[in-house]
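Late entry, evening session. Most of the bench is empty. Finally got around to the prediction I had been postponing all week. Sequence below, unchanged from the version circulated by S.P.
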Amino acid sequence: MKRSSYRKRSYPNSGLVLFGSIIILLVSIVSCKKDETTPSPEEFYIKKIYVNNQTGTYDFYNTSLSVDCQIIFSAPVDTSSVRKSIIFSTKGGITLPLNISYEKKDSVIRLQTKSQLNPLSRYNLSIKTALGSKRGNSLNGECKVKIITQIDSTDKFPRISDNELLTKIQQFTFKYFYDYAHPSCGMARERNTSGDVVTTGGSGFGVMALIVGIERGFITRSQGIVRLDKILTFLETCDRFHGAWPHWLNGVTGKTVPFTQYDDGGDLVETSYMVQGLITMRQYLNSGDATENALISRINSLCNAVEYDWFRNGGQNSLFWHWSSTYGWQMNFRIEGYNETLITYVIASTSTTHPITKEVYQQGYARSGAIVNGNSYYGIKLPLGEPYGGPLFFSQYTYLGLDPRNLSDIYANYWEQNVNHSLINFTYCKTNQRNYMGYSEDCWGLTASDNPWGYSAHSPTNDLGVISPTAAVSAIAFTPTQSLNAIRFFYYTLGDKLWGDCGFYDAFDINETWWASSYLSIDQGPEICMIENYRTALLWNLFMSAPEVQAGLTKLGFSYK
């Protein structure tokens, strides 16, 4: 859903009736809800509105906490009709008192708030048609003005060191995967309101988060082993389709919960996120310990059961996202790049039982080189992908385990790709060509998340004014300075609205004064994991230490030095 703001025009002081009529008509169409007929010279209408000496639209952003509004009318106002016709209220509909005065022989109404407003809040000024002129004419159309107050820049929490802050974010985010995991199976819920619906990909991120939780001392190693055992037991007994898990499962029964009508079977991309997590965990476990060695064997069995070659849909040189025992290949969705699915091809190349070939990667994911971009945005070269890089999860999901620091193939250097993608996203928000309130060098990050209207993959080419904290936070390995600035802003400046039991909420839109109360596993996971990769490279080192990962990358034509 796109927003637009409309410029209001004032009436000229000329006596040219025709010119005046045209301007009045434009105002009636654009500014307020007026009739589309040409007004007569006696029509009573609003010429212009000022809020704190600003005008130009009927949406006012970043206003001070004391509002001074001037409404200029085409004729003197019947002052007895004002108080019942002009309402100033909160977003929730609570009417607030105003000081009202009149200027220029009652043709200008001046409204001033009696007390300070709340920061980062929306207020509505409604001017109803019951307002009349002294000649007895009613206002020719109701008008509504939106006012968003400025950000309160004071700290909402005590200052701590950046190192302590990063640990706090990881610890609170870890709660989502440990404290609030589904009690029956240990898997991560799709979101904090999903009940029994657990998710395969997000739980794969959660397996990696378990490693971080153990290493950071959020839980003991024995607690982590117990949780891993519960997850593996569920994965061994729940629905699978040629070895692949579905996107969603019922955490109690292990049965598939359809993601869409035809997506009720194996989801190879979600499965690859789980396998990435399992391989990383396997490399973390101690084979010299009997209990942990048994877990290693179980992980190997789960990974070896995925039939990646089946998902070539009859031997085509491409992987396909979905297969259903009911609908077969009905969705017919090729896994093509450049996007978040590079890890799917890398994981498929690691299989010792159902591997893919180099041609499947080159002709399927890389589309025989069509993933190459090579253009520059804000002077920053983007090797791969769509214009401006797309949502930031493209540079995060795959790279929770896959280390891009020295990774390259014939198409790109993947460190350059991820750094530049993140910088382009940052620069786009900093430049703020759409003039969204809040966007700045400290407040940035566009990726898939909730929004006031539902859910969308936000990006520079699909910018709805929604900032997703996970985008900037999870980019910290690639843009540490810019990400730390955003983290401080999100926590200290916006923390009273943005920080909850599991860390940063999913998203916010200052232009709509909307703040999510949701947490999503696929947004929480990259935060805790990428912060750890930034700090210690722990997950990168573990995943890349797997011999089949090294062999698979070599087979696909990657070099890693």
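Two things to note before I forget:
The CA atoms of residues 275 and 303 lie 6 Å apart.
Confidence is low (pLDDT under 50) at residues 1-36.
Will write this up properly tomorrow.
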